[in-house]
Design a protein that fits this description.
By secondary structure, the protein is mostly helical. It contains six helices and no strands. α1 crosses α6. 18% of the residues are buried.
Length: 160
């Protein structure tokens, strides 16, 4: 059960990041597999993510390259490779948000400055609070996905 919850969480984070990277493509790529509330849809979702990540790796952003993975990495959803994958993908998404098609500056969190140490505490507190909000949103999405999977399984049992 723990591996399942871990995989669901990673799927939710990957969906969020790839949607932020390219909402139109995300809608198109994940049309038949998101939310991934059953085994078949989950497998298709991970396959589409794997293909997208492979493409991103070919056209990587300067200085940021996604580690090479195989499809089982997304199934297991644990270990340093997954953490590195999410960190690098987050960097690519952030770079895309900053230098997006409209060249608008994305909202970036607080900046730490050695020349103004009295502001660092406030910046760290703000950053911590923003991270907590994001963690709660991710947890809520994971719970919603888990609930939808449960409902789908119940419906499937009633049908068969």
């Amino acid at each position: 059960k723990q591996w399942y919850q871990r995989r669901v969480r990673v799927e939710v984070v990957l969906h969020f990041l790839l949607t932020k990277l390219d909402a139109g493509r995300s809608k198109e790529e994940f049309a038949g597999c998101w939310p991934a509330y059953d085994v078949k849809r989950s497998h298709l979702f991970r396959k589409n993510v794997f293909n997208w990540l492979t493409e991103l790796n070919r056209d990587h952003v300067e200085g940021v390259q996604i580690p090479r993975i195989n499809s089982s990495t997304l199934t297991k959803a644990s270990g340093g490779l997954v953490v590195t994958l999410l960190e690098r993908l987050s960097s690519i998404v952030l770079a895309a948000q900053i230098t997006g098609p409209h060249k608008e500056r994305a909202k970036i969190g607080p900046v730490f400055s050695p020349s103004k140490p009295h502001l660092n505490l406030a910046a760290a507190t703000t950053l911590r609070l923003e991270l907590e909000v994001l963690k709660r949103k991710i947890a809520t999405k994971a719970a919603e996905t888990h609930l939808l999977r449960g409902k789908w399984n119940e419906s499937a049992k009633e049908i068969s």
